[in-house]
Amino acid sequence: MKKLASNNIEQFREDLVNWFIEEQRELPWRLNKDPYRVWVSEIMLQQTRVDTVIPYYERFMEWFPTIEDFAEADEERILKAWEGLGYYSRVRNLHSAVKEVKESYGGVVPNTPEEISRLKGVGPYTAGAILSIAYGLPEPAVDGNVMRVLSRILEIYDDIAKPATRKIFEQAVRELIDHDHTSEFNQALMELGALICTPTKPSCLLCPVREHCQAFEKGLQQELPVKTKAKKVKTVHLSAVVIVDPSGRMVIQKRPSSGLLAGLWEFPNYEVDSLEKLKQVMARDNHIVLEDLRPIGKISHVFSHLIWEITAYEAKVENVEQFTETNRKIAFVRDEDFQHYALPVSHQKIYEAHVINGKQ
């Protein structure tokens, strides 16, 4: 790691912080430095784009404006608030941690690294973000944007895909951080990575700290950061079916309480790739014969480690209650009931396909 000279560090801080103060985006979580609001935003922003998060964040704060409101909410309500954001373990961990804050800390988010790091789902980055942004403590908040920015500024060749590398960048932030403007400094590094120092084709000529950047000086900005490629994702072919009776009731079932998309509701679906196989498994597992099955759409959904390729069907039956499933909780719902159930994005799309194609 190429360190900045001590006199350059002061100028680097000033250039970076002044740029952020003048150019920062207007985002709803920047309205104030309430640690609860900062906390929620940082959890939502993990693995999710800013533009996607904004409407979810605003709705979340409308539903749960205080720690007490969120701590007292039931799981169905919090999953519905999170519906569409994915990675649902994030909101479950947040809920558990917020309940602990209410019970053990009087509803006040802890302001020490030791205490805040003990909360469920609060890793080094989230802890650093809350402590620096909300409480003004000189703690590093190192995410992918920060690692990319600093790998170029300090010419760091360590592989950012390796968990151990984070320590190198945390130490770099500790050496560089502006103790008088910790909130602005950490947010500026993130903002710089999001807007200017992007993964491909960074806008170096617009960068407020390019004079401090080792990679820019040597023309190496396209070679950094070093990041090993992720493993190839697995593709799974599924068949899902919207079973509907003359009164408009449909069958949905609840996913298991642990694992992928835990606790969310979905239409019956099976890992089969043909209509005949779907009929067979429905007859075998659910004791229901669906003669009138017709396709209503194809849905592709990408997770970090796998891809679902779903063929959606619709089936008309006389009574949806003839559908039986011994190891899942089942609900029989009409269109107006869906507002009370949290569904994965893929199954929201299946419902949309039913609305558009199933009534033709």
Automatic annotation (TrEMBL):
Q: Which residues form the HhH-GPD domain?
A: 44-195
Per the annotation, how and in what number is the cofactor bound? Binds 1 [4Fe-4S] cluster.
EC main class here is: hydrolase
Q: State the similarity comment.
A: Belongs to the Nth/MutY family.
Q: Which GO terms describe its biological process?
A: base-excision repair; mismatch repair
The record, for InterPro entries, names: A/G_AdeGlyc_MutY (IPR005760), DNA_glycosylase (IPR011257), Endonuclease3_FeS-loop_motif (IPR003651), HhH-GPD_domain (IPR003265), HhH_base_excis_C (IPR023170), HhH_motif (IPR000445), MIG/MutY (IPR044298), MutY_C (IPR029119)
Q: Which UniProt keywords apply?
A: 4Fe-4S, DNA damage, DNA repair, DNA-binding, Glycosidase, Hydrolase, Iron, Iron-sulfur, Metal-binding
Its biological function? Adenine glycosylase active on G-A mispairs. Base excision repair (BER) glycosylase that initiates repair of A:oxoG to C:G by removing the inappropriately paired adenine base from the DNA backbone, generating an abasic site product. 8-oxoguanine (oxoG) is a genotoxic DNA lesion resulting from oxidation of guanine; this residue is misread by replicative DNA polymerases, that insert adenine instead of cytosine opposite the oxidized damaged base. Shows a powerful dicrimination of A versus C, since it does not cleave cytosine in oxoG:C pairs.
Protein name from the UniProt record: Adenine DNA glycosylase
Q: What is the lineage of its organism?
A: Bacteria, Bacillati, Bacillota, Bacilli, Bacillales
